[in-house]
């Protein structure tokens, strides 16, 4: 998931110019989610880069998506948003035998993210649903 945040003007400019349809757009001042602490503090949008599970598959799909829409990502960079983060949603794969698994992000994606001014974040959602 690409999470982008910044001014309402920049979000509107991106939406008017980009060929990408964000999966979610949020506006400063709108009510937040039930678990949030009040209204949304900054405008932004989310773009789904991958529907895959696991970092390897997500990274491959994200790289393809970014290359295919490179002009849109350059637009995000040129507009100067306050934050653009590629967020990988992952399950904790730690086991008794492997208490500290590694989650490697392929260097081509790291280079792409850097070139486009994006941070990379790993969000862990506990154990996989099918784990015992």
Short recap of the structure:
The chain is of the alpha+beta class and 132 residues long. It is built from 4 helices and 5 strands. The protein is globular, with a radius of gyration of 16 Å.
Give your account of this protein's structure.
With 132 residues, this protein is of the alpha+beta class. Helix content is 33%, strand content 20%. The protein contains 4 helices and 5 strands. It has a 5-stranded mixed beta sheet. Helix 4 links the parallel strand 4 (83-90) and strand 5 (119-124). Helix 1 (8-17) packs antiparallel against helix 3. The longest helix has 14 residues, at 55-68. It is globular and about 50 Å long.
Search tags:
single chain; 132 residues; alpha+beta; five-stranded mixed β-sheet; 20% strand; globular
Q: What is the H/E string?
A: EHEEHHEHE
The helix/strand class is alpha+beta
Name the strands of the widest sheet in spatial order: 2-3-1-4-5
- Distance separating the two termini: 27 Å
Which stretches of 5+ consecutive residues score pLDDT under 50? none
Secondary structure tally: strands: 5
| Share of β-strand residues | 15-25%
Morphology: globular
Q: What is the average of the pLDDT values? A: 91
Helix content: 25-40%
Question: How would you name the oligomeric state of the polypeptide chains in this document?
Answer: single chain
Secondary structure tally, helices: 4
Major sheet attributes: 5 strands, mixed
As a whole number of angstroms, the C-alpha radius of gyration is 16 Å
């Amino acid at each position: 998931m690409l999470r982008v945040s910044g001014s309402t003007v920049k979000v509107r400019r991106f939406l008017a110019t980009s060929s990408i349809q964000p999966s979610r757009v949020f506006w400063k001042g709108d009510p937040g989610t039930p678990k949030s602490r009040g209204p949304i503090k900054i405008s932004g949008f989310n773009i789904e880069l991958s529907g895959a599970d696991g970092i390897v598959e997500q990274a491959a799909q994200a790289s393809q998506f970014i290359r295919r829409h490179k002009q849109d990502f350059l637009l995000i960079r040129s507009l100067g948003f306050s934050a653009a983060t590629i967020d990988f949603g992952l399950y904790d794969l730690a086991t008794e035998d492997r208490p500290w698994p590694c989650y490697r992000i392929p260097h081509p994606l790291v280079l792409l993210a850097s070139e486009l001014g994006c941070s990379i974040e790993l969000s862990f959602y506990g154990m996989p649903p099918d784990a015992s």
